[in-house]
Amino acid sequence: MLAMLLSMALAAPVPLRLVDLLREAREKNPDLKSATARVRATQSAISPAGALDDPMLMVQLWNAPVDFSTVPLMVQLSQNIPLGGKRGARTDMARADAAMADADLGQKQFDVETQVASAYFDLFLADRTQEIDDELEAILNLVLRAAEARVSTGKAEQVELLRAQGALVQLRSERETAVDHRRSSWARLSALLDRDPAAPPGTTTRPGVLGTLPDVAALTEGALRDRPELAGSRATIQGAHAQERLARANRVPDLGLFAAEMHTFRNPMGVSDFLFAGFQVNLPIFLGSKNEPRIAGAQAQVVAAQEAARALRNRVAAEVAEGYAHVLAEMHQIDLHHQLIPIARQAVRSGEASYGAGRSDFTMVLDSARELRMHEMNEAMHLAAYEQRLAELQRAVGGDLGLAQAAEAGHEERH
């Protein structure tokens, strides 16, 4: 017996907790792994960006007679040195690329967490729908048995029995819809977690409502400070400024240094070793046709990055305000349904008792049961919507607002 219970416990799906799923997504989500690798790649490119080019070693047989009576061999070493701040500008551009990649990683983390929360609470809604349908089925079975008893004694018409049976069939149809929603939600969630969608999902936890939220002004201030996209836009501006500095620095010639030594084998003149040294510079004479347009283009990129950053700040503030309004609206809806559900349940109990005693008709009981299901479904939908809106607000703010805490809190109905 103990072995049977143990095997059943091992076979049962592990309960799903949002906090565990968010942690798993951070570790296993392929998009986050890809973004993390890009961060490492861009950070590794910072040091090489400002490094000198490799020196050039040249070995040549120089001005040798055809009969090789003498063999002059020259070895030359040369090094190109960029001037005008080009190395610093390239390093700053690479740093900006790394900062943008890091901001992109932060943005993707919030995006993935929002998607995980959305799929999780869709899964919760499907679970809750099935629970509500099970409760309603129990009520309808009681009504069905009462109808059968009344029809058999001639106290009710056959139509009441048929309507009860029809309500049960309709309920089973609605349950199939919930099963389909559960499968699709789990498919989305498993893809985000890099899991097998064919594996059985666990049961979800009933979420709750946070006691308090910061006001919208504080949330907006935090968003304008912490949103990863804003850090990315600042890095874009810095990269554009570095590109402009590099374009201006191209007005300055680069310096090339070289040193060489030539040794002549079988030299009858006696002197066999010669030294050479010198430098060379490029001549940036095509300023009007090549360099000035580059500078103008870089300046335009700076302006574009600054205006994009301003537009992003406006969009962030709007997202926070909109998300905050949605969360408050869902909170109010949940509170109202917590007051309505106990009333609807009492109406069902009263209707069952009255119908069983022959004091009311079947339609009143059926309507009360359907109204109870409607309120319970609305409450579940608003609970799921609240958590999803909270996840979106958390994404808009760019910081933790207690989403995982709300997912575990639960919320007792208020009578």
List keywords for this structure.
415 residues; alpha+beta; Outer membrane efflux proteins (OEP); 4-stranded antiparallel beta sheet; 70% helix; elongated; disordered C terminus
CATH superfamily: Outer membrane efflux proteins (OEP)
Write down the overall geometry: elongated
Radius of gyration: 37 Å
Point out poorly predicted stretches: 411-415
Helix content: 55-70%
Span from first to last CA? 43 Å
The number of helical segments is: 11
Order of neighbouring strands in the sheet with most strands: 1-2-3-4
Reported for the largest beta sheet, the result is: 4 strands, antiparallel
In short:
The protein contains 11 helices and 4 strands.
Give structural notes.
Strands 1-2-3-4 form a 4-stranded antiparallel beta sheet, with no helix packed on it. It has helices at 2-11, 18-28, 30-44, 46-49, 86-152, 158-193, 216-226, 228-249, 287-356, 362-397, 403-409, and strands at 56-61, 71-81, 255-265, 273-281. It has a single domain (17-58, 99-251, 289-409), classed as Outer membrane efflux proteins (OEP) (Up-down Bundle). It is built from 11 helices and 4 strands; from the N terminus they run ααααββααααββααα. The chain is an alpha+beta fold. The two termini are 43 Å apart. The radius of gyration is 37 Å and the shape is elongated. Mean pLDDT is 86; it is low at 411-415.
